[in-house]
Every structure is written in C-alpha cells, then in structure tokens.
UniProtKB/TrEMBL annotation:
This is Histidine phosphatase family protein. SUPFAM superfamilies: Phosphoglycerate mutase-like. CDD domains: HP_PGM_like. Keywords: Hydrolase. The keyword Ribonucleoprotein does not apply. Its EC number is 3.1.3.-. InterPro entries: His_Pase_superF_clade-1, His_PPase_superfam, PGM_Phosphatase. It comes from Flexivirga alba. GO terms for molecular function: hydrolase activity. The keyword Hydrolase applies.
Amino acid sequence: MRSKNLVRRGGSLTRDGRSQAAALADRLHGRRVAHIYTSTMARAVQTAEIAAAKLDVSVTTRRGLQEFGVGSHVDVGRDTDPFAETFAQWLDGDLTARVAGGESGDEIVARANAVLQDIADAHPGETVLVVSHGGILTLAIQNLLTFEPGVKPKQFANCAFAETELRGDGWRLTGWSDPT
C-alpha cells in the first residue's frame, strides 16, 4: 500500500476510530476494491490507510474530498455549532446559502461531483472506496444521486458507506451499510 499526494491536518484517529477503520475493511473484503481515494484530512487518511493495508490496495488523497471549509469560524469557540443553520438551509434545498467566509452548498456539491466523476472515469466498472466526511457526503448524496427503490440515505456514522453506481442516467444510490 502507498499513499500519493499526502497532506495531513485535522487530528488523529482514536483507538475506536482505528478499530472502526479495520472493521470497514473487513466488511469490504469480498468486494474486490481496486483503489481507495480519501480526503487530505488526517483522520480520513488514517482510515483509508488502515483499510488499504487490509485490502492490499493503494490510497490517493484528493483535496476535493475535504469537508466544507469553516470560513470565518476558523478561530471561533465551538460552544454551539456555527454551521447548523447553513447546513439546515442546504438540506432544505437552498444551496446558495454559504458558511460565512466559506463555500456555498452549490460550490460544495460541484466540488464533490468533479472529484467523484474523475474517480469514476479512472476506474470504469471497478469498485473503489472513497473516504471523506459527513457534510460533503450528505450533500453529494442528496444532490447528485437518484435513489434505487427501497434505498434511503441515512445519517453518516463513522465508517458507514453508501453504495453507488454511475450509470448512463447518472449516479444512483444502490445500498447503505452501517458500521454495526
């Protein structure tokens, strides 16, 4: 396993996080994962590297998979969630809303779409694992995917995964796997 374009920021996995990453790899073992792409944030990279070691595949980091930026909240205390109102607007369909000093929902969805399309183009017909963050993945799933009948997205838990396919008519959510 080797990592390309590695940039580390954003903390370190806990013992539980490392166990969750190993369990993710165990759940994916029979799926013939060809490659892993990950956000450049440290916990995502660590998750990807643990899974890659067990799956015997390589890891590539992509800045486009990073969580939405904190904008002007970078040095603000976190007694309350400074993004809750904006994130709620995005979930209600107002992608023009923006984190103060940061990205709009439209910009986040466009960024996610571009990197996911690049990954799909690089691996036609293959299974890949994308390790990212709850906010960007929630917006991507809600705004880029059509849901197969009976498949509904849930809130992302650590090491949960959405199963998707790129078809002629676009991205489709075909399954959901919780870590438990």
